[in-house]
Design brief:
alpha/beta; eight-stranded mixed sheet; 33% helix
């Protein structure tokens, strides 16, 4: 059996080595479920570690859940509680997000980094094949991996994004110089103390920065990993994310390359789009990618549900029946 984990985090108690996931504290309860086991994890990678949560059976290979840009694995809490009795779910904080370590000084953040992290985790756990669930940046990275390594993916569930919209060349030429300057400034702020504030102020700033996509009453799913106490003033708080994420590269790839890449995706693929999202994804390139997937993959299906870009946080009950039916259809146990 492939190894599950070699390191565990205990809240406020340091860390130690253990061969399996460790159950932490109380079981969580959900309206549709009885007690649900949740484990905090820490996975070593070159130069740092990836933190996250395992929902469900720690003796079965889980679905790897990948969050969106500047989110963290807490966004999967509502949906994970509804799915983990069907299939365990390993939700990670991508490096630079949540409780995971940051990339080293001088590193340049890129949207393709997600593919590298997927490769790292597959090799670490010695999985023959992956099962993936992604949202936004996590969906884009997961689909890129599925195109590059079609034989390595058992199934893939994408929420909201499959690909980024095609950026107008004039816009890129105007936007990229400013972003590179901004990124260079962030590099010099990398090791400086982050801005501080009250929990209420930082939560509200995060809420508005996300275009109010997560309902106020659900912001705690993010803030438990996005905001931490200040090291300088115990009455203040600061964000946990790497400031360089604000300048993550989205330099456009050639459409011909991406279309060839996605024509290689062969695993069962479920795409769920939120009807009220600020990301309309209705430009010619996005529609073309969906056509390619539908034409080349007999196991591709798509659904639209009411909700915002973070529908999986606010309305997980709209996604869970679709996903469970997808499991049933493809005999996923």
């Amino acid at each position: 059996m492939a190894k599950i984990l070699t390191k565990v985090i205990l809240p406020n108690k340091g860390q130690y080595t253990k061969p399996l996931f460790l159950f932490l504290g109380k079981s969580l309860r959900n309206g549709l479920h009885s007690d649900v086991a949740v484990k905090e994890i820490k996975i070593p990678i070159p130069g740092g570690y990836i933190a996250g949560k395992l929902w469900g059976n720690d003796q079965q290979q889980p679905i790897l859940a990948l969050h969106g840009w500047q989110d963290n694995c807490g966004v999967w809490d509502p949906l994970a509680a509804m799915l983990c009795d069907k299939k365990p779910l390993l939700a990670i904080d991508l490096p630079g997000h949540g409780l995971s370590s940051w990339q080293p000084p001088g590193a340049y953040q890129d949207t393709w980094d997600v593919v590298q992290y997927i490769i790292e985790l597959k090799n670490y756990f010695k999985w023959d094949k992956l099962s993936m669930l992604g949202h936004s940046l996590g969906s884009v990275g997961g689909l890129r991996y599925a195109g590059l390594y079609p034989k390595n993916v058992e199934f893939f569930i994408a929420v909201e994004n499959l690909v980024y919209e095609d950026l107008d060349t004039d816009f890129v030429l105007k936007y990229l110089p400013k972003e590179l300057e901004k990124y260079q400034m962030c590099q010099h702020l990398h090791n400086k103390d982050p801005p501080e504030g009250t929990m209420e102020d930082l939560t509200y700033k995060l809420y508005t920065a996300m275009n109010k996509s997560v309902d106020k009453q659900n912001m705690h799913y993010l803030t438990q990993r996005a905001i931490r106490p200040s090291n300088r003033d115990p009455t203040k708080f600061c964000y946990t994310r790497d400031i360089r994420l604000k300048c993550m590269s989205m330099k456009p790839s050639k459409k011909e390359f991406l279309e060839r890449l996605f024509s290689r995706v062969s695993c069962p693929l479920l795409y769920i789009k939120a009807a009220n999202s600020s990301y309309k994804l209705s430009d010619e390139h996005c529609l073309r990618v969906r056509e390619i997937l539908e034409k080349n993959n007999p196991n591709y299906e798509s659904h639209t549900v009411e909700g915002s870009h973070h529908v999986h946080v606010n309305n997980p009950e709209r996604l869970a029946p679709i996903i469970i039916d997808f499991f049933r259809k493809h005999k996923i146990h």
